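Teaching assistant here, posting this on the class forum so everyone can see the example we discussed in section. The complex has two components, and the goal was to see what a joint structure prediction looks like when all of them are supplied at once.
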Amino acid sequence: MTRTAGEFVGSWRAALRVARRSTVRHRGRSILIFMMLFLPAYAATVLVMSWANLSGTSAQELSFRMGQADLIVDDGDAARTSLPSASRSVPLTQGRTVVAGPAGLAALEYEATDLENPINRGRYVLRAGRAPQGAAEVAVTHTLARELDVRPGDEVVAGMPQRSLTVVGVVDWSRSLRQAGLLVSAEAPLSGARAKLLVKLPAGQSWSPPQPGGLESGGFSYTYREGPTAAEKAVEAAAILLVTTFAGAQVVLLAGAAFVVGARRQRRDLAMIAAVGGTGRQVRRIVLASGLLLGTAAAIAGAGAGLLTFTLAGPLIEAIADHPLIDVSIPFPSIAGVAAVTTTVGALAALLPARTAGHGPVRADLGGQRTRSRLDLAALVAGMILLVAGTGVLVLAGNPEGRAELLALGAVTQLLGVVACTPALVRLTGRVAAALPMPGRLALRHGARHRLRTAAAVAAVTAATAGSVSLAIVGTARSHAPATQHPTRPGQIRLEA
Amino acid sequence: MSAAVLRFAGVSRAYGSGEQTVHALAEVSFEVAAGELVAVMGPSGSGKSTLLALAGGLDAPTSGAVFMEDVELGALDAAALARLRRDRVGYVFQDYNLVTDLTAAENVALPRELAGVGTRAARREAIAALAEVGLADMAGRFPDQLSGGQQQRIAIARALVGQRRLVLADEPTGALDSRTSLAVLEVLRARIDAGAAGVLVTHEPRYAGWADRTIFLRDGRLVDATGPRQTPEQLLGRTA
């Protein structure tokens, strides 16, 4: 091992040792920082799991509505002849019926299909009993079972003409667990509603609707399975960027303030390490190691606790999401991403205190003397530039045709500008302290003297306020948006002026 | 006596500017050879600690030059100065000498680990250094589990572990009782006699007697110096 590599390894080893011991010794502060990092990691893991397994993605939404089908078409000769020869399909009839049970009557939706056909996988979840077969059996959703007070083995009357049906199972519909409905076999629908086909195309083949001129036996409607559009993906990416950056910045600023306090209390130790031969970089690593250590611990604990919560709280999560958990999968890249972001946030929170510690005057720090820091003009100028640039981007992109990722970029740039400007502004406020009464004077001077941690806290509060106000404005705008759909009676059309 | 390990050549250090300039050191020149312990005495504010900081590269002279074995410290960048302290210079301060989150052995091994020596090898060196100061059985204790005298002896062990050539001690007995102070000075003297060079800043003439010679500072100027091997009684007579 070369001398430089040996110094690198040796200094990290020593840094991690000091960080580990310091973390244990100062438990209160360590737990505070750990929780700041753990809670977002925990919440993000639960959200990522829910996102991947419930309604978060367009693909999942499609599975709830289409099962494994690539296509839903009205059943008929025109549709059937347009399908590739090796296509598989299962009929589906959706309609409304009146059902009478022990607890009374209810008008509700029903579906007639073959529950056990693989194409239907994802559309339903069997809670109890079995799938209905033949014309005399029915399955009910758990909401309807509760409303009618029926369970497998009971009888209900439904359909036109009315017929007696034996409840053989409880089956929820994936698209909404609150739905009250009936499920009967494909060959025995409860009304004359037009049947559809759920179609699974042969592997590797696509389907194109026939041209109107080529339809000899009448037209049909269809729903094709399509992924999100580029615009939807862009909005989703911008939302993730915005949320991750703002949440990450909050944690970095708040945890950073705690790290500043820690580094300040540790400064004689750090100065001692510098005096016995630690380079500025090696001293920085000791503070940085604390961030990495706590970030890594919080990432592992947060991801683990999130996965555990998701596993144990399945029914509750299903109830909140209104969708069932089917074929639960762990999105390892996303979970790894959450862990990586948490660790990075921990390291970033320690970065500025680490830089300050690495540049500290050893003599003054050894003697426990306060050192006067310079007004960081470069940071102020950079912050002002970022603020102007971020505002400019927001002004340009802030219109109905604006691109979502540009809006996110502008907001993040503004946030960075605020963070960069705040230390200098906090310091400037110290100059007006003399004009204030004693309590205000003390508070302002204390804040200015400890400007790094004050600035971190102020920037965190500013970012949180800005985020909350933005959300409130968006929410208010949506709630006041005029209705864009007006009901029309059958046979009427409405023309826009 | 061998060639100079530490050399001050017309070193001045001033703080501030204009009318508020404070001259902490002015035109100070002296040398310390291998195997020699030089005591630095003087009233508070005379520049003793500044001299020690300049000798270890923790501060830079306003004018003049400090040489460590013919290497001018002013020509080195911060990282090179840190390496020089780590490899060749050992510091002992009046108090707060040890890193609180490291055990005695880890404190002594710290400069070696920072230099890239493996953990086990560094620990072996540290245990050997602790044995020299009679504290090998305290290797696993943390600073807050040790007395002041034990902490100072461990600091001396750290100051001399590896190939350190120069020990800079700033009032190492300042916070200790007489008996413990003597034990610390015995250890320091033994290591100097083994070939290191040393600078001992002290207020106490009786402790300066452990040095080979003493230099006196007043208002930043070197105002007097004893010859080699002065007895404590002689020193007491000169400073009375």
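For the discussion questions: Confidence is low (pLDDT under 50) at residues 482-486 of chain A. Residues 70-204+219-224 of chain A form one domain. Think about how each of these relates to the inputs above.
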